[in-house]
Fold this sequence. Notes:
- The protein has 447 residues and is α+β, with helices and mostly antiparallel strands.
- Helices cover 51% and strands 10% of the residues.
- It folds into two domains: 69-153 and 305-445, MetI-like (MetI-like fold); 171-296, no CATH class.
- It contains 14 helices and nine strands.
Amino acid sequence: MASAAAAGAPPGPAAPKSRRSVTGTRKVVAALFLLPALVLLGALVLYPIGYSLVRSLYDSSGDQFAGFDNYKALFTDDGIRTALKNNVIWVVFAPTVSTALGLVFAVLTERVRWGTAFKLVVFMPMAISMLAAGIIFRLVYDQDPDKGVANAVWVGVHDSFAQASAFPKAHPGRESPLVGQGGAFVTKEPVKAGTPVALPMVGVAPDQFPNDAKRAVAARPEPGKVTGTVWQDFTRGKGVGKLGAPDPTERGYAGMRIEAVKDGKVVASAKASGDGTFTLPASADGAQLRLPAANFKEAYNGVDWLGPALVTPAIIGSYVWMWAGFAMVLIAAGLAGVPRELLEQARVDGASEWQVFRKVTVPLLAPVLAVVTVTLMINVLKVFDLVYIIAPGSSQDDANVLALELYRKGFSEGRPGVASAIAVFLLLLVIPVMLFNIRRLRREGRP
């Protein structure tokens, strides 16, 4: 009966194979596949980290144990403290501005036909290396408006509202009746009506003359009026021309302002014509003539973008130019996954586009925005190339960041112990941000 029952019963499950053999085989195969990656990981990541940690505990020579003295320098050295302050500015503003611009670009380009082309143009700077971008923006921020695009635009806008002087280098020539007075030039003696006045000047380069400047001529006397000529009293060639009188090759100071001053008050004024001549009314009789300082102010050369005050914001601007496209692409990918029915429902309920963007789109994109922002924070903690290339030597101390200070301490100043301490400190700053990013990604991957 027992044998019959056994014969009629369905066959039981097959006995499992040796768990040890199967699992062991898988472990060996997995180890063989992972071995090259583990070797590279150990050689390129773990060993440098360990060596930097050990080296940070020794002095510059590497022979004497220094303990935590190198770490104390992180908070006492002026250069490192400046770098730490600038890193805080970078971490706060660069990721925030890049992410905000990426969000705006992603949302706006979703509704235009040429959105793909626009995204391509915005993302294109990512194809440029940091070195090339640094060279580009070093030229963009050049102080000379003839070279730097930023100052060319800025000077163009400024000169549209406040015209620059054409005579910034002009000054009285030899045997001139003019003397300096607080940036202006005044005649030594009062002038008389009916007697022409000669006001010779020098110092203006030929290519700096106004476009309407003409050949200078001597002024003719007019009864009851003060006339005169203000011109460039210089003729190229030794012994050529006559001082104090206009020569055929000399040009008038077109547009030069002349004032008649009595008892400290301006009683009349005029502007020189193209040939340098001017005419003042009878009220100028007995007054001293003054060429105001406004005639000689230096031309506006724009903003000192790479000076101590603006060098860090300027470099952050170049970083945003590169990485806003990266943020835009990631946010656009997240935006493509947003349920359209939620947006349409909000519009049907009477929400404006701004309200839809602020109360529906942004909250739905919050995980993507967090990932992009954290990724850029990690990136800016390591920024080196842009600061090293864009900041000139005179402003590099003011633009300093931790990665650049690490390089300077290790190679320029010969203090590898302090450089290793900075490297370890940077690692400690990056690790919490990385862990935050990993935890967020794991939470999003859970069902």
